[in-house]
UniProtKB/TrEMBL annotation:
PANTHER family assigned to the protein according to its UniProt record, in alphabetical order: CARDIOLIPIN SYNTHASE (PTHR21248), PHOSPHOLIPASE D (PTHR21248:SF22)
UniProt xrefs under Gene3D superfamilies: Endonuclease Chain A
UniProt domain PLD phosphodiesterase: residue ranges: 155-182, 327-354
Organism classification: Bacteria, Bacillati, Actinomycetota, Actinomycetes, Propionibacteriales
Protein name: Phosphatidylserine/phosphatidylglycerophosphate/ cardiolipin synthase family protein
SUPFAM superfamilies, per database record: Phospholipase D/nuclease (SSF56024)
Organism field: Nocardioides astragali
């Protein structure tokens, strides 16, 4: 056989394998969505909004969408000067309309309202919903943002952030997208902050707006938010992934905190597809005696992500880490708390798309009172979890082991 024939055979085999993997992924998704038809998630335990003072401001933690949306809408209704609103998903349903109506009313009474939503995430939302009053300044982050620079990987990140800033006074950020199902059916975590941290969230919005605006500024126009902050709050940091600047601090933030943990790491994530270094850090923490708990959905809304995620369970369980699976509803939170001191709440999932691909925003807080709230939330979630033991994991059937291994090469895509 000539070299050329061998290369052709290898190429066909590889293409065939990739085709089979994608085919299996599609088949799993179709079967899963068929099985879910008409099924409603069950209620789950939640903690009410809890507020603690941190530095010169306060942080309120939300774990139930309806509580959060009520407070966000009240803040929009009370705005006097400016609203900055940014979301990955903005459904055209009852909750989506409530936000659209409140934002439009604010703009109509003279408030300066800026909105950003992601074009790709809202492709299925009706075009009528996506027509806005001219009183609102709206940016649809485009589906294709690379233009003719197809080779430029910095232009492929999605805008996955979810935030709201009202005047100088209050900022919200966290895992919640905007939609009716998230109000009651999904377990998620968001925070409301006051104090110097608000400026950082405002800066995050303004930088994205200025970086991605389509139209050049006229001579008389100024970029959004030229002024700088006057205060530093040592307990609070806002970290932003900015793919356009190839800047991904949220992964580093996690790794640094995990690597210095001495007592506990309690991590909650909707999708768990970390890189090997991330898994190693968690496993090493467990091996040095840290109480590592990873809380995930038993079944998320993306079944292929669940299958691929399972590929990491063996190493983690063998290291002593515990895996807790939230049952009967989707847990979509992106949070962690460490050693009763450190905590993060944000938009970044523990997967490649979030940690090395998309625009994201996470709050990092070093404060025992806030860490205690986050531990309280975690304990409440644990009451709705099934723990997966190493013995159970090792006893799973061959079909499952085969599917996990077969889908493993798709990991870098997610
Ligand atoms: O990308 P996230 O974390 O906001 O989750 C969104 C849902 O997966 C939509 O299907």
């Amino acid at each position: 056989m000539t070299v050329a024939r061998t290369l052709t055979a290898v190429r066909r085999t590889l293409l065939g394998l990739v085709g089979l993997q994608l085919g299996l992924a599609i088949a799993l998704s179709l079967v899963d969505s068929y099985r879910r038809r008409g099924k409603k998630p069950k209620p789950f335990p939640v903690t009410g909004p809890q507020t603690v003072p941190v530095g010169a401001g306060e942080i309120t933690t939300y774990t139930f969408g309806r509580d959060l949306y009520d407070d966000m809408l009240a803040a929009i209704d009370g705005a006097r000067k400016q609203i900055l609103f940014e979301t990955y998903i903005w459904k055209g349903d009852e909750i989506g309309w409530k936000f659209k109506t409140a934002l439009t009313a604010a703009a109509d009474r003279g408030v300066d309202v800026h909105c950003i939503y992601d074009g790709f995430a809202n492709m299925v939302v009706s075009p009528a919903f996506k027509r806005f009053s001219p009183s609102l300044k709206v940016m649809r982050y485009p589906i294709w943002n690379a233009g003719l620079r197809v080779w430029d990987l910095r232009r492929y990140g999605r805008n996955h952030r979810k935030l709201l800033v009202v005047d100088e006074e209050v900022a919200f950020l966290g895992g919640y997208n905007i939609g009716s199902a998230y109000a009651t059916e999904w377990r998620d975590t968001h925070v409301r902050i006051t104090g110097p941290g608000v400026w950082d969230v405002k800066r995050a919005f303004a930088d994205f707006w200025n970086l991605n605006r389509r139209r050049r500024l006229t001579r008389s126009e100024r970029p959004l938010l030229l002024e700088t902050a006057s205060d530093w709050d040592p307990q609070i940091r806002i970290h932003r992934n900015i793919p356009r600047q190839w800047n991904f601090p949220i992964r580093s933030m996690y790794l640094e905190a995990i690597n210095r943990a001495s007592r506990n790491i309690w991590l909650t994530t909707a999708y768990f597809l970390p890189d090997q270094d991330f898994v190693d850090s968690l496993a090493e923490a467990a091996q040095r005696g840290v109480d590592v708990r990873i809380l995930l959905p038993l079944k998320s809304n993306h079944i292929v992500a669940d299958w691929i995620s399972r590929g990491y369970y063996g190493q983690l369980l063998a290291s002593g880490a515990r895996i807790l699976r939230f049952k009967d509803a989707m847990v979509h939170a992106k949070t962690a708390t460490i050693d009763g001191n450190w905590a993060t709440v944000g938009t970044a999932n523990i997967d490649r798309l979030s940690l090395q691909g998309n625009y994201e925003i996470n709050l990092e807080v070093i404060d025992p009172a806030f860490a205690e709230v986050m531990e309280d939330v975690f304990r409440t979630d644990e009451t709705n979890c099934l723990e997966l033991t190493l013995a159970e994991w090792e006893a799973r059937d061959l079909n499952r082991k085969f599917t996990e291994s077969f889908l493993a090469p798709l990991r870098p895509l997610l």
